[in-house]
Amino acid sequence: MASDTWTVAHAKAKLSEVIENARVNGPQTITKNGRRSAVVVSTEEWERKAHRDGSLAQFFATSPLPKSGLEVDRANERFRQVDL
Fold first, then answer.
1. What is the distance between the alpha carbons of residues 29 and 6, in angstroms, rounded to a whole number?
2. Which of 4, 5, 17, 75 fits a 20 to 30 Å CA distance from 84?
């Protein structure tokens, strides 16, 4: 049974196994001092999740919000007072 959680020390000692498990079994979590610290994923998964169609400008240009009738009221104050 393959584990999907590794301590930093164990991941360092078994890096090839961590990478292979990420490729075959999915994301592998690495913990440091008992807390989740990093995740190792396969190249294929990374590229699939990181890929975005279009640009931010295209997203805003095709957004339905301008035609939604949504109105946003802004405060009349220019600056708020901050005590330093």
1. 6
2. 75
